[in-house]
Amino acid sequence: MSDQSPPAYAGPQRVFSGMQPTNGLHLGNYLGALTKFVALQQRFDDCIYCIVDLHAMTADHDPKTLAERSREVAAAYLAAGVDPKRSIVFVQSAVRAHAELAWIFNCVARMGWLERMTQFKDKAGKHSERMSVGLFDYPVLQAADILAYKATHVPVGEDQKQHLELARDIAQKFNNDFDAPGFFPLPESLIEGPGARIMSLRDGAKKMSKSDPSDMSRINLTDDSDAIMNKIKKATTDPQPLPETKAGLDGRPEVENLVGIYAAVTDKSVEAALQEWGGKGFGAFKPALAEALIAKLSPIAAELRRLLADRAALDAILREGAARADALAEPIMRDVRRIVGFWGA
Ligand code: TRP
User: Fold this and answer.
1) Is 207 an annotated catalytic residue?
2) DSSP track, 213-229
3) Which residue's alpha carbon is nearest to atom 3 within ligand 1?
4) pTM reported for the whole predicted model
């Protein structure tokens, strides 16, 4: 009896993630992504954090501001605590492997797989025929981002789960079609921890988002103390006091969100936060929450400003990051070119 299952991937454990260089990073990006990026540096030797400007071209694309937006997101990674000596921080378009591997994966992925992607359907709505091919192809480029480095673990939000499944399907089909068992790993999403989903301050059913028309719905990483205090005081709640147990948060999404934020920024469990605040009213809780947020975010905002003020230093970090990323991807791409049979490979 022979074992039919393909060999398990035997390479190193490696983290890859990315964020689009769109303006207006907010608390949801910080707690949902950046704090995870920072924490993973302790658990993995190789963490690769990308600013995905090729992906940003699929939405409103302004060539005049794109590079500066990329610097802003890079500065946010660093200000949050990503260490550019330990981790690789770079801009996607500076490493050629992403676009090249995306093309090869275009010829592996099937139309039907992409037609099932809910994010495209949501973004395109009824007008898919007017959307760019790039928007449709977005998840294939995302698979290329990850697999150009043979990354095994990908910290992302809940909304990216389907894209990660697609990346696994592409990796598996490549390995099968080209008779390269175990060549690409099947990357796993890491969706974990408190703050995985930070909701709008106005509506507990909606995610905190830069595209929400109301600025009161979100805490921006660049908000000053007065703005933070004001937004938290005006955040939607209900007239009941805070509950004493987690079960008491059921059906109170706005309260659950504020308690979750408090727990995340004070490094406490939700249970501990409720022990502290259960039975008390929002008149007392909201100022304490705002103070905790200010204490957490103001050093980050200051560091962000410092990094952005020295563009040459920031660009040097990004150039070094791109060189290190390229050095990891290029040997993998050489194998890929040989496997698919390119001339000269
Ligand atoms: N699509 C991701 C998002 O919107 C961003 C992204 C692009 C990404 N490439 C990636 C995330 C690769 C993880 C890995 O959040």
Assistant:
1) yes
2) S-GGG--BTT--HHHHH
3) 19
4) 0.93
